[in-house]
Amino acid sequence: xxxxxNVLARARSGASNPGRVGxxxxxxxxxxxxxxxxxxxxxxxxxxxxMCAGLSGGGSTQAAEKMHRGMAAAFPNTKIKICxxxxxxxxxxxxxxxxxxxxxxxxxxxxRDVKGLMRREGGLGRQLGDEGSATHIGKxxxxxAKLHREQTGEESPLGKQLLRQLGVANWVLxxxxxxxxxxxKRPEPTGDEREPDxxxxxxxVVANAAEAGDEIARGILREAAGxxxxxxxxxxxxxDLRQVPFRLAKTGGMIxxxxxxDLELDRRLGEVAPNAEIGLLPMSPAHAAALMALELxxxxx
Length: 301
What we know:
CATH class of the largest domain: Alpha Beta
Strand order of the largest sheet: 5-4-3-6-7
Radius of gyration: 21 Å
Largest sheet: 5 strands, mixed
CATH superfamily of the largest domain: ATPase, nucleotide binding domain
Helix content: 40-55%
CATH architecture of the largest domain: 2-Layer Sandwich
């Protein structure tokens, strides 16, 4: 983005959550995206005055400082701002009271009240929460499929599709996916579980099954929509927005992937937030991050 807010280039790279992929990989992904955008824009590396990175997993002071040091070393003459993905999503909403619901690998809601005070709900990770997320949906789908198999002796249609996605013939997965275990007795975690990589990949399977009318899949998505709406409802209580008109935006990898889920989520959000104007983010989080970087330049004079 130039100083007149014109977007010069866009670029993509890999995952940048230091808590999931490690600091070295996260820094490499950020640098790759930044350097690709610089190359596409046709400017020189030294012409970049400011950079903002909104990271999932960047909420802790220690993580933010470490990422800041790494980016400052890679771009020594650039002003660097490290914040969370929730902050840049909320910044994309512009001024005024607003709430953003993030539904992807994890789940979270962030909002701003009429006085500009910011609060958040969720975003605690798979061990403590992430209800309604793609990870949570994948876990519930596996459990439902395995329970059906153990109780009836046959695979459900959803179970067959999940097994096909996992690339295995049955639920005896101890060798390939030891953390999946039994439907009625899970093994103790080993510390090397790849749950974030496995379970979110199952969301499209559940979404496609729900679109085709599978009631097990639809039940899982109805419950997820309720969980996400509850997340927003708790946040509205913190922000005192239940009686105030505000904008509510949905974003994340689960949004726009399944018409059944989108309609169910809108219905549940309408119940908990009847005064909200529900829609999508008016700009991408990356665009909002670039505007935040531009503010660093402007505030410096």
